[in-house]
Design goal:
- 2 copies of one chain form a homodimer.
- By secondary structure, chain A is of the alpha/beta class.
- Helices cover 51% and strands 14% of the residues of chain A.
- Chain A is built from 10 helices and 8 strands.
- Chain A has helices at residues 10-21, 34-44, 71-85, 135-148, 157-187, 196-205, 211-214, 218-221, 224-233, 238-257; strands at residues 2-6, 25-30, 47-49, 61-64, 88-91, 105-111, 128-132, 152-154.
- In chain A, strands 3-2-1-4-5-6-7-8 form an 8-stranded mixed β-sheet, covered by helices on one side.
- In chain A, helix 9 (224-233) packs antiparallel against helix 10 (238-257).
- The longest helix of chain A has 31 residues, at 157-187.
- The radius of gyration of chain A is 22 Å and the shape is elongated.
- The N and C termini of chain A lie far apart (49 Å).
- Chains A and B meet through helix 5, helix 6, helix 7, helix 8 and helix 9 of A and helix 5, helix 6, helix 7, helix 8 and helix 9 of B.
Amino acid sequence: MNITLIGAGGVATSLGLGIIAAGHSVIQVYSRTAESAKRLAEQLSCKWTDSISDIDLSADICIISVKDDAIATLSEQLSKRAQTNGTLFVHTAGSIPMDVLNLPRRGVFYPMQTFSRQRTVDFHSVPVFIEANSETDHVVIENFAKSLSNSVHTLSSEDRKWLHVAAVFCCNFANHCSALASTLLSRHGIPFDTMLPLIDETTRKLHTLSPVDAQTGPAARWDKKVMSAHEEMLADDADLQRIYRIMSESIHNITQKK
Amino acid sequence: MNITLIGAGGVATSLGLGIIAAGHSVIQVYSRTAESAKRLAEQLSCKWTDSISDIDLSADICIISVKDDAIATLSEQLSKRAQTNGTLFVHTAGSIPMDVLNLPRRGVFYPMQTFSRQRTVDFHSVPVFIEANSETDHVVIENFAKSLSNSVHTLSSEDRKWLHVAAVFCCNFANHCSALASTLLSRHGIPFDTMLPLIDETTRKLHTLSPVDAQTGPAARWDKKVMSAHEEMLADDADLQRIYRIMSESIHNITQKK
């Protein structure tokens, strides 16, 4: 299949590499800035543009992978040409409903993963959640998704919203817990790397135990002595102390319901 | 070496198996309840007792691996016999100072890992933080620790406190983020397993990027539209909404300082 990539950030980069690895062609990359359009186009050996009116709509699928806020405006700007060309568009955002695309043929291709430009993600293992506004295009998007990933699911815009907020907890907030730990450790000259075996095992456990069953630590035991000592240690940092207290209380609430 | 294990919980179980795997002997297991003493003793093929006065103090090291709160009392109860026998004691707690052991020969052997009874942990990769109240016993504990783990570090009680609070963030709080996600998903009939590739990659990233550099998501981009939509979705659950807001603000604070 011939694909046009609209966007050149973390998602677009990993996706572009996945598309090529699956044997498809990226025919063009668009980005607001020539610099990033060019950078990704070089990586994918294809054409690029920074002008919306030059976006190549002859592709089998045009993938819109820009900031959530920019999707609606962009779709508005493409609307007229899209109608003439009969192009199929999908966006890649977790929390944006399909119908924000004001385009006759529309769908969603949401790869649920954390993409950083510094890392290449193996697309085969990325769960992809798809949706389309017609049966025919659902098949087109599903076949395309299945050629890239071993884990393709059809999900409505409504359910995808919940999936996305859950992903924010599992990924963004869990990562932030490590970021907070790293600030504490660096103040005491302890390298963050010492935490990696613990973090690895915390994650491995989730493959065999539910997160509620896997819970350990002072809050799960409701060990008030340790918890007050910790809160006192964090007294100089209101942010950390507040998070410590609220997370501990929330662990206690869930552990008790078990 | 001959080891007496005082305690039969998650840490004592994984540690007992690690001790045997390293070629040492566990000569006895003590637990407050006969049932759990017996259970672990059977696993380790050794004697057991549920009576403090029968604890075998002839061991090269007696390892106290009981609830944090119980360490001081237990050490008090063993104090007299320990003086006569000249036994070396260590405890395994992250947040308890060495000197809570009111015993002439004392130290710490803190394996920083999340131990659940349902899972056997490979002890070789568990970072162990040690301390002793004499040079001689430091060598004894260090040699013992190095026979079990590839990652042995000497750390004072003061620094260990900080290590432990950091571990609570990286492990207990990060796991709780998954627990919160799992409650959201189950309400919408989406299996938690769909999150595993995302959680795995979130962890893998930390082996090559600092947690601050690895941060992604709406709060890192400070995408207010997505964040308000998420907060609104969580309006029925004060706990989740509060955590969503506080974690997002905290991510923003750290991302801005970058």
